[in-house]
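Dear support,

I submitted the protein below through the web form. The confirmation email said the job was done, but the results page showed an empty box. After a refresh the structure appeared. I'm attaching both so you can tell me whether what I see now is the final result or a partial one.
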Amino acid sequence: MRKSLDINLALQGGGAHGAFTWGVLDRLLEDDRLRFRWISATSAGAVNAVALASGLAQGSREKARESLYKIWHAVHKAGVPDLARLNPFLNGFTRQNSISQMASMWSPYEFNPLGFDPLRRLLTDHVDFELIRAKAPVELLIAATHVASGRPRLFRQDEITVEAVLASACLPTLHHAVEIDGASYWDGGYSANPDLVTLASESPVGDTLLVMVAPRTQNEHPTTVRDITIHSNRLQFNAPLLRDIEVITAVRETSGGLLAKGRLAPLYKHRFHLIDGGEITGQLNPESTVKPDWNIMTYLHGAGRDHAEKWLDAARSSIGRHDTVDLAKHFFPGLEGGVLGRELKPRRAQSSKKSVAEKVVK
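What the results page shows now:
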């Protein structure tokens, strides 16, 4: 009997581009050696997480794959046009203009006064939240942003409801804030996208695979109003992840293995792995994140499966042993002297050979 490989998942948000993560999970579920333990997820990542958890709670990996497919097919069938059908004028408007243009002219409280959100019915129809709370074999951390303070709120296993996922995926330019226990919440991407620090410091499992959807950089300088808005949004939603990686790097730079103490001490030894879909999604129209097109979504699903296949070939044997990505070098390339102003000490996992992340990209 082959030994199982326990691993955590950290799933980034990204709207319809989260179909890339669907493809990654679809392929990983085919490898029965992998056992998912904790999942930290935000927005579209949260949708993937609960679909996965719901399927696993039904007793099989095949059920989880089926659940993910049903969710994404339903996203395609619902789409944004369902929102527009509430108002014939809006329906005509969206045929001629982008969703982002519409959102810049009216607030969702004006163009959608009833607060209609097609994602609510989609989740209710395809995810068994009661079963997740009772039997899911994975621990969930679903991030949303507390509107009043801007702080992240992590909904845990016994708190996972349809409202928690809606809050995690609530873009305030398109949807009403989601109210839970008297507090209002927006998309978790503003504060944790996803939360790596809590996952790596609390999970008893020492390996975490981060699945990224958003591009890390944009080489072309934005000059139009549209491009500046898109780029500033990307920077805003990537900032929480970069902040977490700075914290992890700081712990590793300033603490020796025997000196690390306190809540963040586990970060020193935690092993990180990465599947980065940013190069794929960066080639798409940014507005495709809010326009679920089945051709684009199946393309992203296929790309996700391909990236996961390459990652498994390169990194499977490293799970439980060492990192397969240097987070500081990957996210802060060319930064002299490390994030804290001095050269990073080489970790046991690093060598003169190319990193697994580089192999996967190629």
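Response: this is the final, complete result; the empty box was a page-load delay. Residues 225-254 form the longest helix (30 residues).
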